[in-house]
TrEMBL record:
This is Fungal-specific transcription factor domain-containing protein. The keyword S-adenosyl-L-methionine does not apply. The keyword Zinc does not apply. Keywords: DNA-binding, Nucleus, Transcription, Transcription regulation.
Amino acid sequence: MPRRKANDRAGPVKTRSREGCSECRASRVRCDTKKPVCTRCQERGLVCTTKLVLKWESEFVTRGQAFGRAGVWRKSGKQPTTPSFTSSSALSPDDQVWRPISWVEPWGFINSFVKTLELPYEIDVTDDGHNLVAVPAMAPRAASTMRMIGPTAPPPLFPHLSEVNQGHLLEYYIRQVCPRMTASTNVPSPFASMIVPFCSAASPTVLQAIQALGACAWSRVDPNYGAVGLRLKSQAIRGLQNSLFSAGALTYSSYSEIMVAMMLLCLYELVDNCDQRWTIHLKGAKELISSRRRQATFLGPQQDEVTSFAEQFFAFQDIMGRTACAKPALLGTDSWTHNKHKVDAWMGCSPELVSILADITDLSRTRRRLSSNSDRAALSLKTANLRQQLEEAVQDVDEGDGNLRTLAELKRLAAILYLHCALYNASPATPLVSHYVRRILRLISDMIGGGQLVGLAWPVFVAAVELDPLSDELWKDSDGREVHGRPVVLRALAAMSESSVLSVARTRAVIVQVWQARDNVLKPLSSNRLLDAADWNDWESFVVPFCTAMSLL
């Protein structure tokens, strides 16, 4: 019997239900869509669920199937329609238009997770800094510093020390660690020229601290030395504790040994994970220096070069870290008694510049406490004076030391940028900030290209956290392509992580957190919730909350 046409059928036409449950749709039967369980599922004891299934036209075309109702039988009798998707192979060469696909770098995106918004001040720092970013090819000088000491190594510089237990770690410290902690190639590193001769006459604790630091640095390229460094660190800490709790007054020689050992153990933490454990040694140094100054008449007014260097190390660490976190000062700027305009190779700038940075941080801390117009006028006058000092600062560098000269100028520019953000309420959108960020990152890019990677942590940090997320185009390269700020920063951090002895993992993690805060947060952050948001400047809102126990050596 022939099938009746739709016009001859009696009763309502049955149509598919778009709200049917998954079980009925899978069995290709009509669902009555009763809620919460349809009749069929209730009778059969099935789980009645409704799921949303996304279908993509390209997948159906690839399998040669029609997408939805495209190409199916129609009541009007018209020919089936062809799918809307047409492959490029069906087009003639004249009709094909090829569009260039922009290259996506590995650092093109920074992922934000729920934890980023729920716990915005927690910084996730991995153990291995150079695994955080894609590492480009190293410059010749950087690559040469990574070579291990093998059987063909040159004769030891200090044979009487290298022959002791773990003497090869001392040699690694001298040949590999010390050169990567000084920006100048013309000036010997004080970590070698001062500290190594001192340890030959000091207690075994100093030598153990040196060997622990060498093993920790070596473990970055050979993880087997991690356990060795940890064991030597424990021995050095026990020796340091015995010196601190030994009976009797603090003598000059014991003070020097304790300060040097604490400096080396502090460096161990900076090389290892760069977490807040390094601040334990900083706070201990503060107490020790205060105690020594109270006993100045007993210890005598004279101080040797090694002890002065250890005090300067902790004072420099305190000042540079405070620029990020805005904490109260632990150590003052009176640790430098020599020429204030002469650039120190291990600091990468002059003592005068370091003192100006300390003054900027102190003024920024007191800015919101001013209540009278006269106090605000005095603050404006001091700020203008500091700005003039920075713009006219003279940093003396020996002839022929171009790398050190460039680094000193780079830190001066970063200091000017920091002053405007901390005291003039400048932000990334301020034209002057954009100008200095562009100059700083251009110099950093040139230095990275030349293999100069020491001392860049603070300039990279200051420029990175003040990048404008809406306009970070810096310049055009030789091919006319725009160079953007965030890739430049991440490339610099990658190169520093690969060749620098100090860990940059925390520096990079904080920079990424600041970028995420600028991209995602609708209102400014602040570490002090009791303050009115109108009183926060950009630095206090987006930088300070993340920078507790920050080291920017």
